[in-house]
Amino acid sequence: MIADPIGKFTLTNRRALVTGASSGLGARIAATLSAAGAELVLTGRIQQRLQEVAAGLSGPATIVPGDLHHPGFRVSLIDQIRARHEDLHILVNCAGTCDNGPLESQALSDVTDIIDLDLVVAIDLCRLAAPLLVGRPGASVINIASIFGQISSGGGMAGYHAAKGGLITFTRHLAEQWGERGVRVNAIAPGFFPTPLTGELADPDQRRRIVARTLLKRTPTLDELEGPVLFLASDAASYVTGHILTVDGGWTAC
């Protein structure tokens, strides 16, 4: 008999850092982890938005506003967590943005800025947070990648593709490095979800493209990312690491 399968999804007595938590997927992920019992540390650039997100959570949360582009802020962020809490159980690397247009029309900074935020920041936060994660029960890293780290979008976004592809490979590499140390490292590769980054899927042409391309023949809702996030963050996925969980309605299946 299975004693308590639902209990494996609880995050009580665990602390989670969510980057990019002021809006979109980051805000929704924060709400999901909080509802499952986790104590949250939220970071993003806009303090007011972080305060609004924190006010709507089910449990306690600390906000640390700042720009993750700056290495000094990343050090300060982890130092503050260490000083206040001494440990960390869950790290969700969600901060990111995207570029657009033909590569030859982009400035080098257009590309490198995307790669810095979408890839280098996640790598560096894992590096800095390692002492807080290793040895903690249920330690889990979740990197928010994209289906466009696996396939081409058919358009621009060279920096975004490179960064998300790199993040997927980094996820597998770090899972190998940290497996024996008890830290699981996985990634979620979403398709198009309604967020500020995708224009909330308000463009009718974009919606028609998604419906035509996905096997489920519809656009997603934000709540459909909650289950995958909670699974990877919790003991329900205690034997899952190095995995890229694609949540795209079947976009990449054919």
Automatic annotation (TrEMBL):
GO biological process: fatty acid elongation
Keyword NAD: no
Keywords: Oxidoreductase
GO molecular function terms noted in the UniProt entry: oxidoreductase activity, acting on the CH-OH group of donors, NAD or NADP as acceptor
InterPro entries: NAD(P)-bd_dom_sf, SDR_fam
Family matches, as Pfam families: adh_short_C2
Record family assignment: Belongs to the short-chain dehydrogenases/reductases (SDR) family.
Name recorded for this polypeptide: Oxidoreductase
